[in-house]
Amino acid sequence: MPSDRLAALLRQRHLLTGHLAWLDAEITEASGLNPDETLAPAAFPAAPDAPPAPLPSTATERPQTPGKLKDADPEALARANALADSLLKDYSARNTDTPQSTRRGCLMLALAVGLLGVAGLMAINLIFFR
Q: Which of 1, 5, 90, 123 has the smallest C-beta neighbourhood within 10 Å, fewest atoms?
Protein backbone atom coordinates (compact mmCIF):
# COMPACT_ATOMS: atom_id res chain seq x y z
CA MET A 1 0.00 0.00 0.00
CA PRO A 2 2.72 2.56 0.78
CA SER A 3 4.01 2.27 -2.79
CA ASP A 4 0.53 3.07 -4.15
CA ARG A 5 0.30 6.11 -1.90
CA LEU A 6 3.79 7.22 -2.91
CA ALA A 7 2.92 6.82 -6.58
CA ALA A 8 -0.26 8.87 -6.12
CA LEU A 9 1.62 11.60 -4.27
CA LEU A 10 4.32 11.75 -6.93
CA ARG A 11 1.66 11.96 -9.64
CA GLN A 12 -0.04 14.84 -7.81
CA ARG A 13 3.32 16.60 -7.42
CA HIS A 14 3.99 16.20 -11.14
CA LEU A 15 0.55 17.61 -11.98
CA LEU A 16 1.10 20.60 -9.68
CA THR A 17 4.53 21.26 -11.16
CA GLY A 18 3.02 21.27 -14.65
CA HIS A 19 0.26 23.61 -13.54
CA LEU A 20 2.77 26.00 -11.95
CA ALA A 21 4.80 26.01 -15.18
CA TRP A 22 1.65 26.87 -17.13
CA LEU A 23 0.83 29.66 -14.65
CA ASP A 24 4.35 31.09 -15.02
CA ALA A 25 3.97 31.10 -18.81
CA GLU A 26 0.57 32.82 -18.60
CA ILE A 27 1.88 35.43 -16.16
CA THR A 28 4.88 36.10 -18.38
CA GLU A 29 2.60 36.46 -21.41
CA ALA A 30 0.19 38.77 -19.58
CA SER A 31 3.01 40.96 -18.29
CA GLY A 32 4.31 41.53 -21.82
CA LEU A 33 7.80 40.16 -21.19
CA ASN A 34 9.73 37.93 -23.53
CA PRO A 35 9.48 34.24 -22.67
CA ASP A 36 13.25 34.23 -22.02
CA GLU A 37 12.89 36.88 -19.31
CA THR A 38 11.57 35.83 -15.94
CA LEU A 39 9.89 37.93 -13.32
CA ALA A 40 11.44 38.18 -9.91
CA PRO A 41 9.17 37.04 -7.06
CA ALA A 42 9.14 40.62 -5.75
CA ALA A 43 7.41 41.73 -8.99
CA PHE A 44 4.29 39.79 -8.05
CA PRO A 45 1.81 41.04 -5.47
CA ALA A 46 2.03 39.29 -2.15
CA ALA A 47 -0.54 36.66 -1.29
CA PRO A 48 -3.06 37.68 1.37
CA ASP A 49 -2.16 36.65 4.90
CA ALA A 50 -5.69 35.82 5.94
CA PRO A 51 -7.40 32.70 4.61
CA PRO A 52 -10.52 33.20 2.50
CA ALA A 53 -13.77 33.67 4.37
CA PRO A 54 -15.69 30.42 4.93
CA LEU A 55 -18.87 29.81 3.00
CA PRO A 56 -22.18 30.26 4.83
CA SER A 57 -23.22 27.18 6.78
CA THR A 58 -26.96 27.53 6.20
CA ALA A 59 -29.15 28.79 3.39
CA THR A 60 -30.40 31.72 5.48
CA GLU A 61 -26.91 32.98 6.33
CA ARG A 62 -25.60 35.39 3.69
CA PRO A 63 -21.96 36.26 2.96
CA GLN A 64 -20.85 39.85 3.31
CA THR A 65 -21.48 41.85 0.14
CA PRO A 66 -18.50 43.75 -1.24
CA GLY A 67 -18.37 47.26 -2.63
CA LYS A 68 -21.40 49.39 -3.29
CA LEU A 69 -23.95 46.80 -2.16
CA LYS A 70 -23.08 47.46 1.49
CA ASP A 71 -24.49 50.95 1.17
CA ALA A 72 -27.52 49.89 -0.87
CA ASP A 73 -31.09 50.21 0.35
CA PRO A 74 -31.74 47.48 2.95
CA GLU A 75 -35.31 47.04 1.75
CA ALA A 76 -34.13 46.45 -1.81
CA LEU A 77 -31.60 43.90 -0.59
CA ALA A 78 -34.29 42.17 1.46
CA ARG A 79 -36.60 41.99 -1.58
CA ALA A 80 -33.78 40.65 -3.75
CA ASN A 81 -32.88 38.04 -1.15
CA ALA A 82 -36.53 37.01 -0.79
CA LEU A 83 -36.85 36.68 -4.58
CA ALA A 84 -33.68 34.60 -4.74
CA ASP A 85 -34.92 32.33 -1.95
CA SER A 86 -38.30 31.85 -3.64
CA LEU A 87 -36.60 30.98 -6.94
CA LEU A 88 -34.42 28.43 -5.18
CA LYS A 89 -37.48 26.87 -3.55
CA ASP A 90 -39.34 26.77 -6.89
CA TYR A 91 -36.49 25.06 -8.72
CA SER A 92 -35.81 22.58 -5.94
CA ALA A 93 -39.52 21.70 -5.74
CA ARG A 94 -39.65 20.83 -9.46
CA ASN A 95 -37.43 17.78 -9.09
CA THR A 96 -39.75 14.99 -10.22
CA ASP A 97 -37.17 12.31 -10.93
CA THR A 98 -38.00 9.36 -8.73
CA PRO A 99 -36.81 5.78 -9.06
CA GLN A 100 -40.37 4.64 -9.80
CA SER A 101 -40.82 7.07 -12.71
CA THR A 102 -37.42 6.12 -14.10
CA ARG A 103 -38.23 2.41 -13.86
CA ARG A 104 -41.62 2.97 -15.52
CA GLY A 105 -40.00 4.92 -18.37
CA CYS A 106 -37.39 2.20 -18.95
CA LEU A 107 -40.06 -0.51 -19.02
CA MET A 108 -42.17 1.47 -21.46
CA LEU A 109 -39.15 2.02 -23.71
CA ALA A 110 -38.29 -1.70 -23.62
CA LEU A 111 -41.90 -2.59 -24.45
CA ALA A 112 -41.95 -0.14 -27.37
CA VAL A 113 -38.67 -1.51 -28.77
CA GLY A 114 -39.98 -5.07 -28.41
CA LEU A 115 -43.24 -4.24 -30.17
CA LEU A 116 -41.36 -2.53 -33.00
CA GLY A 117 -39.12 -5.58 -33.35
CA VAL A 118 -42.09 -7.94 -33.52
CA ALA A 119 -43.82 -5.68 -36.05
CA GLY A 120 -40.64 -5.60 -38.15
CA LEU A 121 -40.32 -9.39 -38.11
CA MET A 122 -43.98 -9.76 -39.09
CA ALA A 123 -43.50 -7.30 -41.95
CA ILE A 124 -40.44 -9.20 -43.20
CA ASN A 125 -42.38 -12.47 -42.97
CA LEU A 126 -45.35 -11.07 -44.90
CA ILE A 127 -43.28 -9.39 -47.59
CA PHE A 128 -40.55 -11.94 -48.34
CA PHE A 129 -41.96 -15.32 -47.34
CA ARG A 130 -45.55 -15.29 -48.65
A: 1
